[in-house]
């Protein structure tokens, strides 16, 4: 679980910096102490659902966007990860294939 907290914290930190906000400013918007923002960003604390919602609002993102951890993977890395998962799990391959069939003419 600590890996998840670190991924979430890194994502929050990345978005905060992209928005040119300091930890102090984000803490003020969220109404928590600056050390708590630091602990969240460093993966030491996991924010409550309420705090997470406030962080998303302060960063002007939808809450689900805080969980988009794979934005920095290359296309080749994504392919390799998918192919590896498909090789390990035939059922997963079948599900993705059905999704592919359903979407292949809608995405251009």
Describe it.
This protein is an all-alpha fold. It has two domains: 2-67, lambda repressor-like DNA-binding domains (434 Repressor (Amino-terminal Domain)), CATH 1.10.260; 73-108, no CATH class. It is 67% helix and 0% strand. Helix 5 packs across helix 6. The model has no long low-confidence stretch (mean pLDDT 90).
Notable traits:
108 residues, mainly alpha, 434 Repressor (Amino-terminal Domain), 2 domains
CATH class of the largest domain: Mainly Alpha
Number of domain modules: 2
- Superfamily at the CATH H level of the largest domain? lambda repressor-like DNA-binding domains
Poorly predicted ranges: none
Report the total helices.
6
Question: How does the overall form come out from the CA principal axes?
Answer: elongated
Work out the number of β strands.
0
In short:
α2 packs across α3 (34-41) and α5 packs across α6. The chain has 108 residues and is mainly alpha-helical.
What secondary-structure arrangement, pairings included, does this model have?
Elements: H1 2-18, H2 23-30, H3 34-41, H4 49-59, H5 75-88, H6 90-103
Helix pairs in contact: 2-3, 5-6
